[in-house]
Amino acid sequence: xxxxxxxxxxxxxxxxxxxxxxxxxxxxxxxxxxxxxxxxxxxxxxxxxxxxxxxxxxxxxxxxxxxxxxxxxxxxxxxxxxxxxxxxxxxxxxxxxxxxxxxxxxxxxxxxxxxxxxxxxxxxxxxxxxxxxxxxxxxxxxxxxxxxxxxxxxxxxxxxxxxxxxxxxxxxxxxxxxxxxxxxxxxxxxxxxxxxxxxxxxxxxxxxxxxxxxxxxxxxxxxxxxxxxxxxxxxxxxxxxxxxxxxxxxxxxxxxxxxxxxxxxxxxxxxxxxxxxxxxxxxxxxxxxxxxxxxxxxxxxxxxxxxxxxxxxxxxxxxxxxxxxxxxxxxxx
Length: 333
Known about the structure:
Layout: E1 23-24, E2 42-46, H1 57-69, E3 73-78, H2 80-84, H3 88-93, E4 96-99, H4 105-117, E5 124-127, H5 133-142, H6 150-157, H7 159-168, E6 172-173, E7 184-193, E8 196-206, E9 209-212, H8 218-231, E10 238-246, E11 249-256, H9 264-271, H10 277-285, H11 321-324
Parallel strand pairs: 2-3, 2-5, 3-4, 6-11
Antiparallel strand pairs: 1-4, 7-8, 7-10, 8-9, 10-11
């Protein structure tokens, strides 16, 4: 069970809209404020709203609960209709909320700068859905807060660029969509601490959910997952890597920047109840010194030097293709 840190109740608040694209969300009851004379850090959570009884509601509430228990105040940015459809637990666990398209990086940056100009402070940014990761990276960069570089997020979320970058780095990848997957599937789950990835869970997807992975190959799979996220240029937040153990070796199938998978976060809570991945991210972003809550499955690899982080790969195959799709290419031919 998460241990609640001391925060007293506060009156209901409503986050005002400060740009044409932002609309005020319904009033939310703030679960807490800090004691007089203290200043709690504030986390901007993009994409943290999930409708009541939606499959993603439990994961969103679990993330909010970890934030609440860590003494961090939350300001949720998400579409107004999603905020309005939240259940009572999400409303209680979030301190403030603003209706804003959290996929729109420009709108998020403009809104945050308006709030800063009005005297509000933000200490960290985190995206909780895959579709908001680029906006979260852009927002963190604009506010000079820890986060993944936007180029790295683009690379990870573009399947062709991700596979090409991994293959160029010597990783075995599942790159033929017409070929049936081979080998046993695994999912590695972890978080970055001081720029180093730590894998805490290796699970096997089943028809009924997830099962813990066992066997001598677990450390090799975890190490391959850690090496893959580093090679792609990631350095912040949580991550999920899908792998396959094949006769040819360990193949990397997918890399995600969230724990979005049915039942995965619940499986993590059951299997490793002492591990709160988002609290690790918050503590890391805020410069808090804390021991890891559990021994990772494999030693975390050292972050690569900037010169070894792969450039964004030109998917079109010819330099001329970059003009049509500038978001896909960054200076390679």
